[in-house]
From TrEMBL:
A GO biological process held by the record: homoserine biosynthetic process
Protein name in the entry: ACT domain-containing protein
Chemical reaction(s) catalysed: L-homoserine + NADP(+) = L-aspartate 4-semialdehyde + NADPH + H(+); L-homoserine + NAD(+) = L-aspartate 4-semialdehyde + NADH + H(+); L-aspartate + ATP = 4-phospho-L-aspartate + ADP
Swiss-Prot/TrEMBL cofactor(s): a metal cation
Length: 915
């Protein structure tokens, strides 16, 4: 039976008390150290090992070793522990940042303990910065800089301090003894390096690897502390690699498996912490796995155990669809195929080094990249592409990446076609000067070959090509060897691009719409990658344009708000409160990327933080400039759709709608000026709207949030004939006459309507009847009546003497002097059992409109209103006997902004949002 207890490192006292380890062979016992747990079973011929073994013996004394050996029972010595492989193993890897502080190491221990897998192997890097500190020691020593001694003390102090915070009692003592001994060995070795003024690679690797040895021990003891038996592994005892040139190593799986088997038979633990980064050669010389070595260690070990999964813990939520520093919209990918991860890492994406993928790929072991500081993020799973295309690989294009500082070399001429060996000559010239060819493209006409190389290598390539092709150039067989400087590569990566028609069409369409010129294109037969070469200055814009096309929903809308007053401001607050719900439930992503008032303006590339739009408009604002807001919107290539919402009452702003629609910017407004302005301009605007796919919505211009425009359009579009539209169209005037009773004065009620936000910015627009007349015109024009505002006779309620007031405030101040006149009119109506109501009429049959103050009997529906109610009656062919009536509050901030918001959602739904 394999007991977990026997796997834990035991001091002699504990061993003697009956908790025992399995016995190693006689040769191995001689050099085994119970304190440091580094298995000294190798022949003592390796000078690096001698130091350690002798150190161990000197440190702990042979007596203790003998005691440990004596405690091993015969029964346990007989136990054969073959290496279990497969699903029961889960492998985790924690990098230096994860192991950065004692608290983080404790968090790592907690993560390990929360994994319910039957068996776990945890690969760790050195504590953050320690590897650099260790390299620095070697560097100092071989430079004969004796400050290596104080630097070594710092290494000791750092680990001692961490261990003191993390461990206690026996675990701490054990770690301290080991650290102490290692540091004295290192001191001796560094001294030797100092004297020689030189360190061999294996000496250096031996020194540097201590960071991992210490972090592995600390974590293993921290896990032990919680009562879960855990042992630790010096992977130099197991992982055998051979150098494969160009600063790389290849794992020797057969030999490693043999050694792992042997190691495990001695320490058959269910939880093992192993050192990342370090390994050994077949000749037992310490070495490292080079850059990103710990990930590689995890992948190799995962493969040796045929693990269920290898989890690489880091400090990001997973692999992004593009560099998040360049594309703020970048998203975390939930899955990636091995090949995609491979492609992306080539482009410098923060994925795994390609060689890390190889060991697990051969056994189909998934690698999961997770954020240790955000455990709620599920991370990115890198696995074999599911056979079923509909399985969880999200999209055919997985990510976009760029490489800057490139130059294109274009070799061109009629003499190239059909001449074997031209390409070979070109690329051997590039090779001869050591240039790295990053991408190649040749048109099938064979008249030109172009390729991209790093900018810093292009001069040498150009010189080499001119030399090689001197004769061909002189004879005119080649017309030019041309260099195009300042280029970048933009690559789209995705496995399913191969089986999805139209991907490249979408890619190039997005580039075209962003007005980006493509210099060269390459797509290999594998179709994992489509690469385009563009001007470096266009690259960031191109990246954002293509990313948004593939990753943002079609119903992402960039919104510009003009006039953050009562309605505009209320709309911004409603957007703030509802945006997340819309995104979550309806995939509608509304981003306000610009707000302008009359004096200040705030712009954002990705979306204003609506929680603080008011502050931003004060503190982080520029002088208001409508033209630059429009430019900001139309030149933004991140968002597929753009809309301007005019919340002013400004005629000048309204005069721009035509241009905006022409630019492809949708327009939404509660401002009545465009639809009630000069007829010819109105007709031009509506004609353009109908001829284009750009939308113009203005529901709130009549009846605020009440569905007046949409009801009318619905009747007309379905073939009903409108005969007459009649009603109370002014929320302000409705409020005034609903409340002008008893002892209240007319001017008080007007002031109340103003305070309640029912009036126009200047209340004279309401009292003069102009606002109602505008609404009558808007409805009349919907019914195809060609009327101008001046065609509507209007009864103004503004006393003649106040029409010339220079401001709304002056008007409000002077209004009380006319209260008596109003009292008289009211009394007259009241004595006839009637009420005053201000009504508008569109008489479609007679092709005219009117606006009047009328008296109605108390039982008339118009007399029944309250608050700011509007009531609008449509008499039509279908609704002839009983008109279709829409009634409800027809003014006020919330209902009006709500009406504008509805238009925004209608736009999103026209653009494809779910209903
Ligand atoms: N208040 C209501 O109940 C209803 C209002 N409306 C319409 O909504 C629009 C806005 O009304 P309110 O918000 O009540 O008025 P408001 O006066 O509170 O807001 C208008 C805002 O637009 C700004 N503005 C004016 N000209 C501008 C320009 N050229 N560029 C940038 N900003 C400019 C002003 O500084 C102000 O902040 C008006 O067209 C009104 O007819 C429509 C239905 C109901
Ligand atoms: N001032 C207007 C607001 C809506 O258009 C009104 O009172 O109706
Ligand atoms: Na309306």
């Amino acid at each position: 039976m394999r007991s977990l207890a026997v796997a834990s490192p035991l001091p002699p006292a504990a061993a003697a008390a009956g908790r025992r380890r399995p016995r190693a062979s006689a040769r191995e016992v001689i050099s085994q150290c119970w304190k440091c747990e580094i298995n000294q079973y190798r022949p003592l011929g390796n000078p690096l090992r001698i130091g350690h073994s002798q150190g161990s013996l000197q440190r702990h004394g042979s007596k203790n070793l003998l005691a440990a050996a004596a405690a091993i029972s015969v029964e346990q010595a007989e136990v054969s522990t073959s290496l279990p492989k497969g699903d029961m193993w889960s492998v985790h890897k924690f990098g230096g940042t994860c192991m950065g502080t004692p608290q983080r190491i404790q968090n790592v221990a907690d993560i390990v303990l929360s994994d319910s897998s039957k068996r776990k192997l945890i690969i760790v890097s050195a504590m953050s910065k320690v590897t650099d500190m260790m390299y620095n020691l070697v560097h100092k020593a071989q430079s004969r800089d004796d400050s290596y001694m104080t630097a070594l003390d710092e290494v000791f102090d750092k680990h001692m301090a961490a261990a003191k915070e993390l461990l206690d009692g026996e675990n701490l003592a054990r770690f301290f003894a080991q650290l102490h001994s290692d540091i004295s060995n290192l001191r001796a070795m560094l001294h030797a390096i100092f004297i020689a003024g030189h360190a061999t690679e294996s000496f250096s690797d031996f020194v540097v690897g201590h960071g991992e040895l210490w972090s592995a021990q600390m974590l293993s003891y921290a896990i032990n502390k919680s009562g879960v038996p855990c042992t630790w592994m010096d992977t130099r005892d197991v992982l055998v690699v051979k150098p494969s040139g160009s600063n790389q190593v290849d794992p020797d799986y057969l030999e490693s498996e043999k050694r792992l088997q042997k190691w495990f038979s001695r320490q058959p633990a269910a939880t093992i912490v192993a050192t990342g980064f370090i390994a050994t050669t077949a000749e037992n010389i310490p070495t490292t796995l080079r850059r990103d070595g710990s990930d590689f260690s995890a992948s190799i070990i995962g493969s040796l155990f045929r693990a269920r999964q290898v989890t690489i813990w880091t400090d990001v939520d997973g692999v992004f669809s593009a560099d998040p520093r360049k594309v703020s919209e970048a998203v975390i990918l939930s899955t990636l195929s091995y090949q995609e991860a491979w492609e992306m890492s080539y482009f410098g994406a923060n994925v795994l080094h390609p060689r890390t993928i190889i060991p697990v790929m051969k056994d189909n072991i998934p690698i999961v990249i997770r954020n240790m500081f955000n455990l709620s993020a599920p991370g990115t799973t890198i696995c074999k592409q599911p056979a079923n295309e509909n399985a969880d690989l999200d999209a055919c294009v997985k990510s976009f990446a760029t490489i800057d500082n490139l130059a294109l070399v274009n070799v061109e001429g009629t003499g190239m076609a059909g001449v074997p060996g031209t390409a070979s000559t070109i690329f051997s010239a590039a090779k001869a000067v050591g240039a790295n060819v990053i991408m190649i493209s040749q048109a099938s006409s064979e008249h030109s070959v172009c390729f991209a190389v790093p900018e810093k290598e292009v001069a040498a390539v150009s010189t080499a090509l001119h030399a090689r092709f001197r004769d061909a150039l002189a004879a005119g067989r080649l017309s030019k060897v041309e260099v195009i400087h300042g280029c970048s590569i933009l690559a789209a990566v995705g496995l399913r691009m191969a089986s999805t028609p139209g991907v490249s069409a979408i890619l190039f369409d997005a580039l075209a719409k962003a007005n980006i010129n493509v210099r060269a294109i390459a797509q290999g037969c594998s179709e994992y990658n489509i690469t385009v070469v563009l001007k470096q200055e266009d690259c960031a814009r191109a990246l954002r344009a293509v990313h948004s096309r593939f990753f943002l929903s079609k119903t992402t809308l960039a919104v510009g708000i003009i006039g953050p007053g009562l309605i505009g401001g209320t709309l911004l607050n409603q957007l703030r409160d509802q945006a997340a719900v819309l995104k979550e439930n309806m995939n509608i992503d509304l981003r306000v990327i610009g707000i302008t008032g009359t004096s200040t303006m705030h712009l954002s590339d990705i979306g204003v933080d609506l929680k603080q739009w008011k502050e931003l408009l004060q503190k982080e604002a520029k002088p208001a400039d409508l033209a630059s807001l429009v430019r900001h919107l139309s030149e933004n290539h991140v968002f597929p759709n753009k809309v301007l919402v005019d919340c002013t009452a400004d005629t000048n702003v309204a005069s721009h709608y035509y241009d905006w629609l022409k630019k492809g910017i949708h327009v939404i407004t509660p401002n009545k000026k465009a639809n009630s302005g000069p007829l010819d301009q109105y007709l031009k605007l509506r004609t353009l709207q109908r001829a284009s796919y750009t939308h113009y919505f203005y529901e709130a211009t009549v009846g605020a949030g009440l569905p007046i425009i949409s009801t009318l359009q619905g009747l007309l579009e379905t073939g009903d004939k409108i005969l007459r539209i009649e009603g109370i169209f002014s929320g302000t005037l409705s409020y005034i006459f609903n409340n002008f009773e008893g002892t209240r004065t007319f001017s008080d009620v007007v002031a109340e309507a103003k305070d309640a936000g029912f009036t126009e910015p200047d209340p004279r627009d309401d009292l003069s009847g102009t606002d109602v007349a505008r609404k009558v015109i808007i409805l009349a024009r919907e019914c195809a009546l060609r009327l101008e505002l001046s065609d509507i006779p209007v009864k103004s309620l503004v006393p003649k003497a106040l029409r010339s007031c220079s401001s709304a405030d002056e008007f409000m101040q002077k209004l009380p002097s006319f209260d008596q006149d109003w009292d008289m009119q009211r009394h007259e109506a009241e004595s006839a059992e009637e009420v005053l109501r201000y009504v508008g009429v569109v008489d479609v049959v007679k092709r005219k409109g009117s606006v009047e103050l009328q008296r109605y009997k108390r039982e008339h529906p118009f007399a029944q209103l309250s608050g700011s109610d509007n009531i609008i009656a449509f008499t039509t062919s279908r609704y002839r006997e009983q008109p279709l009536i829409v009634r409800g509050p027809g003014a006020g901030a919330e209902v009006t902004a709500g009406g504008v918001f509805c238009d925004l959602l209608r736009l999103a739904s026209y653009l494809g949002a779910p209903s």
